[in-house]
Amino acid sequence: MNEGVTSNTHLPPGQIETKRFPAVGERVPSADLSVPSRWEMAINGLVDTPSVITLDQFLSGADQILTFDIHCVTGWTRFDSSFSGVPLALLLEEASVQKDARFVSFDSYSERGHHVSLPLEVAMDSSWLVHSFEGDPLTVEHGGPVRVVTPGRYFYKSIKWLKTISLLAEDRPGWWEVDSSYHNNADPWPGDQRFTTGSLRPDQLERFLNAPTYDKYRNRVFLGLDLRGWQPATLDLRRLYLKNCDLRDVDFRGADFRESNLSLSNLVGANLSGANFSGSDLEGADFAGADLSKADLTDTALSATRFGGALVSGADFSRSRGLVEEQEAYLVGQGIRLTTDAGSS
User: Fold this and answer.
1) Which structural domains are found in the chain, ordered by start?
2) Whole-structure pTM value
3) How far apart are CA 273 and CA 314, in angstroms?
4) Strand, coil or helix: what is 32?
5) Which residues does the chain have with pLDDT short of 70?
6) Residue 81 near residue 133 (C-beta atoms within 8 A)
7) Alpha helices in the chain (DSSP H)
8) Residue 149 contacts residue 158 (beta carbons within 8 Å)
9) What is the CA radius of gyration of the chain?
């Protein structure tokens, strides 16, 4: 076996370390991969030799080991993570990439049609196709039987359940970049490239803040908004997607945030007592010093979510998932009972 190592044991800006491997995003593939053993992958686009590779064919030649640091955009880092597979460059050598190719697009067996792209030179230098993690076959929730990993980029560039590799002349921005305004470069180091710029002009933000209801805003992604001092006309805030927003010290006692997305938002010092976050994505959010007493956090995604100093008496964390060790220890120390899925390994 050959081994590649890409690790520097330093945390990028805004990250916290975990020894777990939280499952982030969708946890099962689309119905056409309901039988993992029937996995196959196509290589097409600007190549001289398009092909379709079966799982048996892939596994017969994918015995190299890659060790690198995973940096998830939600805010967690796992150092020295080992995967087994093969460099993408070796597969593309056999496909014979044409000179006009500049980008690689990876499509997923995903219900929502997830795909990501990388410049060809980045993918050839860094991307691998892998089938095992720490010596065991990848679980379905982590992208098994085969996924992409790309060291040096946030993990949304490492797509689960790989279906197609397409060589392109022009970039095709990925699902996360288009749907959630994630940064197309996804480099954790120079300036922390998580997101692109904010998503509302000042006049649009004013209309949002003063809206009598939020029906027309539900299920739309809003990014990087300064919402300090917001006093909504209604506390029916269901299915609002307020990512990377500033909500420090807001008073949302009893608010209904069911099925919302507050990932990477700052809620330090907020009064959220009795609020309902059931079914929400709270990954990377910061609740330090917030009042979450008697709040409902059932079925929430909590990877890299911070709770230090938060009041959590009477809060319900049933079926929450993804907590890193430090934050789990804090909640347990405050008397919170957690289900076994609170953290993933």
Assistant:
1) 3-172 (3.90.420.10), 197-345 (2.160.20.80)
2) 0.88
3) 10
4) helix
5) 1-9, 191, 197-199, 340-345
6) yes
7) 55-60, 88-95, 120-126, 175-180, 202-209, 325-333
8) yes
9) 21
